[in-house]
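Dear support,

Our group has been running a series of protein-ligand predictions, and this particular one with iron/sulfur cluster is the one our PI (initials K.S.) wants archived with full inputs and outputs. We had some confusion internally about which version of the output was final, so please treat the block below as the authoritative record. The input we submitted was:
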Amino acid sequence: MSWPASAYLLAPLSPWFDRVRRVLPWRAADLDRPHPDPYAVLVSELMLQQTQVATVVPYFDRWMARFPTARALAEADEDSVHKAWEGLGYYRRARFLRASAAAVAERGWPADLEGLGALPGLGTYTAAAVGAIAFQWPTPALDGNAFRVLARLLALEGDPKAQANALRAWLAPALEAHGPSRITQAIMELGATVCAPTPSCGACPLAAPCGARRAGRTGEIPPTAARAKPKAASLWLVAFQAQDQVLLVAPAAKGLLAGLWRWPALEADALPSRPPGSDALLAWPGWTQVYTHRREAVSPLLVPLPAPFPPAPGHRWVPLGDLADLPLGKRDQRLRDLLARPGQPPLEAPAVEALVRACAAPSA
Ligand code: SF4
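Confirmed final output from the archive:
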């Protein structure tokens, strides 16, 4: 590896960051001291995984008002934690955050990177980012943005993640020289605002030494990985309503959707046939719900019933009045919102029977 010294190459970042940095609710005013509230850094880093800054800001503010300390979060019940996270997606992060807060409330903050990395959900990047920003440890944090910036700056060939260890070793002296929190956040800011996938090199403090810019190869460094096409699915999302109760699927203990309540969702081809009468879906148009690996054509249905039926395992009747307080994923929030609108024309009896059969206990 014959890269120029990082402390020299990245020196322009510090004054640039002083000029342009955004005021963010988790960002300390003084970047050259340990952060006054490491818990706020932990919350922000978990929220920022996979989510844009603009989306995170209002969630962070509400979260800190509701759970202002690690202890307050550790003592909160799981439904209220998921409720506060509702809409941010990737709900595992909320559970990890609560579990990390419990560990910190019980044993205090870890004293080194290894201890931070052992907290639930932190991983190599987040542990290093919290170490640098909260505690001023010279622990280089490389996320997608940082890899892109460094790959271009150093004109790296191939996937920069393959050189992660070498890049961390290279970066550490710059953190020591210019301040871990300052340089870590400056790289994040540069990757988010200037060295974006389509870079604005004219506004970049690293334009002069940037290898990719000088070679005219910013469009090909780093190479973009081909994404798998999302799997297509088509489903009925059903709100059974009986005597001021609605039928929901109770949260799973594990997996991507753990902690979230859901409406019964019936894959269109799981029903013996399209429910007769379902063409009368006039009031509620469907929509397409896009996830990273899945693309769902969702048809929402309201099925009013005179009385509840014995639910299939995992399903539960809950009072309509409790619905607003239960954590739901984005797709299911949308049907909850529709319930407040004028109803659709009633479904025909055979359609209702087919739907009930799919969600009732076997003996019902
Ligand atoms: S000069 Fe352009 S490609 Fe190079 S680091 Fe700056 S924004 Fe990125």
